[in-house]
Amino acid sequence: MSKPLIVVTGKNGQLGSELQLLALVCIAQYDFLFVDRIQLDLSSNESIDFFCAQHNPAVVINCAAYTAVDKAETDREVAFQINATAVGKLAAYCSSIQALFITISTDYVFNGNGATPYLPSDAKDPVNYYGETKAAGEQLAIANNPESIIIRTSWVYSRFGNNFVKTMRRLMGERPSLNVVGDQIGAPTYAADLAAAIMQVVTQKLNGNTHTGIYHYSNSGIISWYDFAVAIGEMSNSNCVVTKIGTEAFPTPAKRPHYSNLSCDSFVTDFSIQLFDWETSLETCLSYLG
After folding, report:
1. Which of 78, 113, 238, 263 lies 20 to 30 angstroms, CA to CA, from 124?
2. Hey, which residues does 9 pair with through a beta bridge?
3. CB of 175 within 8 A of CB of 241?
């Protein structure tokens, strides 16, 4: 009897890389096909159509995205194609073959003016174009495949790829002091934890769990980028002095939400997901980085 095939896009990204590690321990249950832009170019509708015609998976996990937040302000056509149009096409493809479709979204769909953790049902109001494209991708996924599962996450980091944790460690080794924004509040997400949660969802869905829709996942705790940087320094035994600054002192082309903490309660309830506190997960990641 053949095993269910799981297609994962964005294989070289942080989440895709963590899923590849996790696949090694799930190999008895599932077959995996990890693809990058060579096999599936989400910026090309022709590439998407060709790929979909060649495969018949049980699950598609879309980890690929246009994530250059500042560049998206000017590179609008490509950002929208990858984060919205392609997501809608993949969702429709999964609907047509009755495959499970899971796609990853972001806290940036919210305006950041809140003061309590955002619920999945809260109104979207992105403050930058990247957030607009991800919000549009959510809408297209649901419109083309009402059974889609959308997982919003925030502040993702990993031992793989480029991220805040690795950047801070590098800069702390190069400089005696750093300025880090202290008035943007949220929660980090260790990509390995998110990958494990996704695979838990896959297993439950293939075994009859009927829940669908939009969910949130991050590590637990509410901190600022400054708090995160201080913890990275302390856990890395760095002598670098970290100073708190305001957002206005670090201007960027794309506006960032000031508050983007996500309520993960419905995800925990519907799929029995375990949340890990951000400090424990950060320690785990740093242990791999050495």
Report:
1. 78
2. 35, 62
3. no
Considering the domain 5-157+189-220+260-276, what is its CATH architecture?
3-Layer(aba) Sandwich (3.40)
Burial code (b: 16+ CB inside 10 Å, e: under 16) for 119-142 equals: ebebebebbbbbbbbbbbbbebbb
Query: What residue spans of the chain are helical by DSSP H?
Result: 14-23, 45-54, 76-80, 86-97, 129-144, 164-174, 191-206, 225-235, 265-271, 278-289
pLDDT tens by residue, 78-136: 999 999 999 999 999 999 999 999 999 999 999 999 999 999 999 999 999 999 999 99
Beta bridge partner(s), residue 177: 241
Can you give the residue ranges of every domain in the chain?
A: 5-157+189-220+260-276
CB 219 within 8 A of CB 187: yes
pTM of the model: 0.97
> Which of 30, 130, 157, 190 is labelled catalytic?
130
Residues ≥6 apart with Cβ < 8 Å to 159:
166, 285, 288, 289
Q: Are 279 and 223 in contact (CB under 8 A)?
A: no
What pLDDT is recorded for position 67?
A: 96
Q: Is 226 a catalytic residue?
A: no
| Helical H segments across 207-253, by residue range | 225-235
pLDDT per residue as tens digits for the range 199-228: 999 999 999 999 999 999 999 999 999 999
Closest CA to 215 of 87, 68, 89, 103: 103
Residue 183 · residue 247 · CB < 8 Å: yes
DSSP assignment letter at 247 = G
